[in-house]
Amino acid sequence: MRSRARINDEGAIVGTATYSGTNYPTGSHGVMLIPFKLVNLADPYQGSAVIGTPSHNDQDTPIDLSSTTNSTDINGVAWIAAGDASTSNAPRMPKLQATLAAPNGTTVWWKLSVINHGLHGPGGNPYRDFDTGVSLTPAQVTKLTNSAETGTVGYSDNIAVPLPSGSYDGSANADGWRSTSDGWVTNAAGTPWNIYQDNDWQTNAARGFFGGDAQISMKVTSSDGSKVLVPQQDFYFRIAGENPTADPSTGANAGAGACQDYITSLYGAPTPNWTGVVTYTPGSTNAPTVPSYWFAYAIAKEETDGNGGRTWYNQFRDNGGRYNTRVPGKEGYPNWNDDSAGGSGGYGLFQLTYQSDETNFIMPRDWLWNWKSNVGRFLPKIQQKLKDAQLSLNGTRSRNPTTFTDPTPLTTTAGSTTTFCFWESAAIRRFNSGRGWNFSTNTFTWSYTPTMPSSTNYLYNVAHKGIENHP
Fold first, then answer.
1. 372-414 pLDDT, tens per residue?
2. I need a surface site. Which of 41, 149, 261, 422 has the fewest CB within 10 A?
């Protein structure tokens, strides 16, 4: 008998067998071997009009598995939930459970791998991924500690469960396989592998959320593992991210709502409050003390405007492409824009970037796949921009010791009604790598040039989309 195994739409491993016998005509016939399924337990995914999938409403959601890579099946996605009641509305990795109804007296073996190749080519982005051919030291691949961001740790985007034998966490396993009889799963035959409860899954997730192209593999052996009964079968799906909902009461997945509420809870309500409070301290090398970074939500709006199929607040691309371009098979990938030459490009709600001259500039994966982690990194970035503005003022004062005057408030350009003080405008503009302010050595006054160094008026856009709430 000759057979060839594959997986069908009903989630069973099936095959074709050529055989003859008393009860069957000679020839090729379909046979069912072992029912197999992968589900995301209690999936709180809200769904989206852009993606076109229904709300899962905390149901166990079957994952469509493919026998080949690069499937565009939207039902073949395990979603990273934007928020889950079981985690105090924090983002949550999928609760994956694999089940193979193997016969009694056999042992089932499993393994899972996930790698992020990003949106930009089959080889991924070398500033983001640990792909083959990237020039990194073994220490960098194992663990990245970014000295520029105290306490920040980055790990490989190539995830393995179980972790490779001999890895630095001390994991031990047989050739990369997890057996249902090795203490990780209680019973040998027909008992699910609760991947989300596996120690190595939890270790990886604790180091930072992860997603991308996933491969789950299984095989069946005799109880002692000495005889292979079903050889290795590989099946493919994706792990992708869900954007935070706009309105938790309706589940609408566009606009403001949960994301804006979270940002303002960390950085202050959307009310300008620096004028008359924040002042220049001659010679200081520290950032001025500010009441709040109230404009954070407006920057997130501007940075993610239209990127992924909805108006703003796009940590992920709902439709897989930029703006209204649908890219099947890429839905839910991190929102990425190649906007920094030689560096990482910008990722997520705040388009976080690293430049190639920064120490260990490979970005921690949690900033890509956990939207609240991305929001949290806004604070050290904007504090540095405010410090840069203070240092720049020091330089201007030292070059013009007798004519230096303190900067004055600014009203944004035509069409906007929001008034910023110098510090607000400087911090906002510098977040987008600009400056905007110039001191005249002829008139001893300050002027603001909104188009420097880019061709767009970033400050106006932030005011218009954010504070003034224009779509």
1. 999 999 999 999 999 999 999 999 999 999 999 988 878 777 6
2. 261
